[in-house]
Amino acid sequence: MSKKIRWGILSTARINRSLIPPIRQSERSELAAVASRNLDKAQAYAKEWDIAAAYGSYEALLADPDIDAVYISLPNTLHCEWTVKAAEAGKHVLCEKPLVPTLAELDQIEAAAKANNVTVFEAFMYLHHPQTRTVQKLVREGKVGQVQLITSWFSFYLPPEQSSNIRLNPELAGGSLWDVGVYPNSMVIAILGAAPVEVWAQQTIGETGVEVTLLGQMRFAGGPVAQIASSFRMPFRWGTEIIGDAGILTIHSPWKPGADGKATHVTFTPRDGDPEVITFPAVNPYLCEVRAMEACILDNAAPVVPLSMSRDFLRSVLALYRSAESGKPVML
Questions:
Q1: pLDDT category, 173, cuts 50, 70, 90?
Q2: Which of left, alpha, beta for 39 (phi over 0: left; psi -120 to 50: alpha)?
Q3: What is the pLDDT of residues 16-69, one digit of tens each?
Q4: Is residue 294 within a helix (H) or strand (E), and if so which, with residue range?
């Protein structure tokens, strides 16, 4: 197969603007279509973003034989339905995070991807970026020694008066952990290469009934512990530290490195000695994600974020929620 990947987008969500320019920037991709449940809305969006085709239903886009891959940016609770339908239509799928909120839905997606021989992966753009890939490599090679603790956090302030925000909707898998917390949760699992064996969490429930802050502790086989935090009630902050017996790796901009067109850096502070700054040129993580899908489709490469990894992410999130609700540690 030696052609460009023709992309379609399901929904006109705001997050699309992060992916549209990278699709157009990549030499092996082409943005071909967008779909909404309202044809007028789809046509207006297509005109705004200069997209050739607009469809008034998701089914119509999936029926287009010229579309190779779809990006799904629908609400969390619609991810399973449309990922499965896309796979059954023979389309490869890049689906926004979290991929699904239940293990039963993940089972459906895995079965559909296998039965239709398509690639499906969860859109954790930062996991494709050279910064994250390098940190993973350095940890594996023993740069920090034996990992003792990973701390990772992501928060921003979402005022209570914005209770209609989709992130706070209990019917649409709202909550800080499902929204920003999936980043630190996935980071620690990706670095350590496995799901935790036990978690313990505390939460603060907000005005709509979903949690607006969650603090979690995760124990991994072999001894490492991770502490993660997500919140809609704290000022904007993000970061990750990997602390070993030989030193500390600090990721200052973990989730969107290079997305602003600026170089990023990681600091290694040895147990004894001077800090070392590791710099990464500005590379858009969403472009890395697009190229990863191209490699899967055109080069038969394995996904950077396979569904087996998404299963570990999901098992951990569900255990954190169970622990927060029960007030007790939960074994995975």
A1: confident
A2: alpha
A3: 999 999 999 999 999 999 999 999 999 999 999 999 999 999 999 999 999 999
A4: helix 285-299
Six-digit token string for 177: 């952990």
CB 280 within 8 A of CB 134: yes
Handedness of CA 62, 77, 34, 294 (dihedral sign): negative
Structure tokens at 305: 């974020």
Q: Is the pTM of this model over 0.70?
A: yes
**């928060």: which residue's tokens?**
155
Strand segments (E) across the chain: 5-10, 29-35, 53-55, 69-72, 92-95, 120-122, 147-157, 198-205, 211-219, 225-231, 233-244, 247-251, 264-270, 276-280, 330-331
**Are residues 184 and 89 in contact, defined by beta-carbon separation less than 8 angstroms?**
no
Distance CA 176, CA 324 (A): 13
